[in-house]
Amino acid sequence: MLSEGQITIGSDPEFFLRKNGGYQSSINKIGGSKENPMPLEKSGFFIQEDNVAVEFNVPPAATCQEFVGNIQWAITHIGRKLSEHGYYMAWDASAFFPESELSDPRALIFGCDPDFNAWKLGEVNPRPVALDKNLRTCGGHVHIGYPEVTDTIFRHRLIQAADLYLGVPSCLVDLDKNRNLLYGKPGAFRPTSYGAEYRVLSNFWLRRQSWIEWVYNGMEKAYHFVKNTANLEILDREADKIQDCLQGRYQSISRELMTTYNIAPVPV
Question: Which CATH architecture has domain 9-98+125-261?
Answer without folding.
Answer: 2-Layer Sandwich (3.30)
